[in-house]
Specification:
Blueprint: H1 3-12, H2 19-25, E1 37-40, H3 45-48, H4 52-62, E2 68-74, E3 77-82, H5 84-98, E4 112-116, H6 130-146, E5 150-154, H7 162-174, H8 177-182, H9 184-201, H10 204-217, H11 221-245, H12 262-271, E6 275-278, E7 281-284, E8 294-297, H13 305-320, E9 324-328, H14 334-346, E10 355-358, E11 363-364, H15 380-398, H16 405-422, E12 430-431, H17 434-437, H18 445-462, H19 477-487, H20 489-499, H21 503-522, H22 531-554
Parallel strand pairs: 4-5, 4-9, 9-10, 11-12
Antiparallel strand pairs: 1-3, 2-3, 6-7, 7-8
Helix pairs in contact: 1-2, 5-19, 7-9, 7-10, 10-11, 15-16, 18-21, 18-22, 19-21, 19-22, 20-21, 21-22
């Protein structure tokens, strides 16, 4: 039963307000002795022409209390106390019946959502910064799909632009073919870094690079062949990382995919009277929106990111008829996307309102700064491998006889890294600390994984539990608080969708793990004389494990049965 909805329905019987508005006003009191739900009566004082506390008192007398333990007024608040026994029974039975689908819904049925994420640059290393967009995008894809939306995951590869002119120039001058075949990304990075070092001494190299890119745009056979080679070698390397993370995409249409679609966009902008000459460049003026111009073509006639993003947005609308078009791209690009969305609106596309930029912070190490130009990067594959190795060391210390410990170390180690990226608000920067990240205590991936494994261990010892379960036996505060959290799973998912913020699910599963461990440390599950209480607690442990598993799955993290 949805008790929040029941509260809203009971209030609506006495208040002229729609259900959705009432539900929005309902709060969760800060302390359990103040009830499970509270409705503030401030907004009713104008209608009833009475003080909020008087309204709360009158509603308390009128309200239908069936299904609730009691209803009280506390000052201007109307406080509802659930019938704990019924609530626990309804919630646990629902979880155990729905299992892997618990928390899902069909709210997004019939709605297409494009999620653009990861989008690394071809011929450059897949570094730790790229995992931010990859982890957030993958999680949003899973969360939205879980609520019935049809998602299209797009890896908008950075496979076009002037950097390829630089790379072609560098290739022709300094490439080591043997190294390129053996470690393609490392060799491409080496010559790319060398290009920038040499260009600082000889600026004419920049002109040479622009020339090569122009030839690439014009379809020159040599430049196109080199570009394709760089792309194929890069994708092969990227797939190794995606396989480690368990990440997949529905489309790899990158910037180059739109190269033959940009002229039509430029022509359309021009026809609508939006294209202005500015020092030789073609721009859309956005002064009235307090933004710099959106550059459509540079003075040398080359297109830039904006042109391609405009073409991509129009293509996606025409192809997928999206309900939402989400871009998981770093916060520094916020202005760029404002310019794109505003330009689309000026072109007459009202659906631009449904294009959303999901920004995120930076990844930092205490003593490092990341820069592809300087070659000082921390490769994601190295980071993931190191996480697995360090986790294996911990397992060898704590549980050396664990079966399949290499597989467990992989899931726990990689899961710990993903959890770190998704733990806090996505716009906050991440500062890596191995000790914190791989700790089995505190708000970490391994802590949640360990909680799940602890629960599964209890279930293995318990064996099959058959017959009717008397959930009224679960009457301690710790049991009620845990079940209350389990019941709130779907609400946390819907809130994550509303804010496009996976950390809401991460914080939720941390709270579930904390509540379970609090219960577990205070109460025995298997060593109790009351057989009915034992059976009820076993079922509660099973439901908790199910919700933890479902939560971690939405974050892109695999669970382990033993630790």
């Amino acid at each position: 039963m949805d008790y929040k909805k029941l509260v809203a329905e009971r209030i609506k019987e006495h208040v002229d307000m729609d259900l959705e508005t009432i539900e929005r006003f309902i709060e969760i009191p800060p302390k359990s002795d103040m009830g499970d739900f509270a409705f503030p009566c401030f907004q009713l004082s104008k209608v009833f022409r009475k003080a909020p506390n008087i309204i709360a008192g009158e509603l308390k007398e009128k309200i239908n209390k069936e299904g609730f333990e009691k209803v009280e007024n506390l000052g201007p608040y109307l406080n509802f106390f659930m019938d704990k026994s019924s609530f626990i029974k309804d919630t646990l039975e629902k979880i155990l019946e729905e299992k892997d689908s618990y928390g899902s819904s069909f709210v997004g049925e019939g709605k297409n959502v494009v999620v653009e994420y990861s989008s690394p640059n071809i011929a450059k290393p897949f570094h730790v910064g790229h995992l931010f967009t990859t982890a957030i995008g993958n999680s949003l894809y899973k969360i939205l799909s879980f609520q019935g939306y049809h998602c299209i995951g797009v890896n908008h590869l950075g496979d076009w632009g002037t950097q390829f002119g630089k790379l072609i120039s560098a290739y022709k001058r300094w490439v080591d073919e043997e190294a390129l075949e053996k470690e393609p990304i490392n060799e491409l990075l080496r010559i790319y870094v060398k290009f920038h070092e040499e260009a600082e001494k000889d600026p004419s190299l920049e002109d040479e690079a622009r020339m090569h890119f122009k030839k690439l745009e014009d379809g020159s056979e040599e430049e196109v062949a080199l570009w394709k080679r760089f792309k194929d070698l890069s994708l092969k390397e990227f797939e190794k990382v995606y396989d480690m993370l368990g990440v997949k995409f529905d489309s790899y249409a990158g910037e180059s995919f739109y190269s033959d679609k940009m002229d039509a966009v430029v022509e359309e902008i021009d026809k609508k009277g939006l294209l202005i000459d500015s020092n030789g460049a073609k721009v859309v003026m956005l002064d009235e929106y307090n933004m710099p111009p959106c550059i459509i073509k540079k003075a040398d006639g080359a297109t830039i990111y904006a042109t391609r993003d405009l073409a991509a947005a129009i293509y996606r609308k025409n192809t997928y008829d999206f309900y939402k078009n989400i871009y998981v791209v770093g916060t520094p690009q916020a202005l760029h996307f404002k310019q794109i969305f505003t330009t689309l609106k000026l072109m007459g596309y009202d659906w631009a309102e449904n294009c959303k930029h999901v920004g995120f912070g930076l990844v930092k190490f205490a003593d490092k700064k990341l820069s592809t130009r300087k070659g000082d990067v921390v490769l994601l594959q190295d980071l993931l491998n190191e996480a697995v190795e360090k986790t294996l060391q911990v397992i060898n210390e704590k549980n050396p006889s664990l079966e399949n410990k290499e597989e467990a170390a992989k899931k726990i180690g990689i899961g710990a890294v993903i959890f770190t990226y998704l733990k806090n608000n996505r716009e906050r920067d991440i500062v890596f600390d191995w000790k914190d990240m791989l700790s089995f205590d505190g708000e970490t991936g391994p802590y949640v994984q360990y909680t799940y494994a602890r629960g599964k261990s209890v279930l293995r010892k318990a064996g099959n539990v058959e017959g009717k379960i008397d959930y009224s036996k679960l009457n301690t505060p710790e049991e009620f608080e845990l079940v209350k959290l389990l019941q709130g799973f779907q609400e946390s998912i819907l809130m994550a969708i509303d804010k496009l913020e996976p950390s809401i699910v991460t914080r939720y599963v941390i709270e579930v793990a904390k509540a379970f461990n609090k219960f577990y440390n205070l109460h025995s599950v298997l060593n109790v004389e009351d057989e009915e209480l034992k059976k009820a607690r076993i079922k509660m442990v099973e439901a908790t494990c199910q919700v933890i598993k479902n939560s971690l799955n939405l974050l892109g993290i695999d669970t382990v049965e033993k630790m």
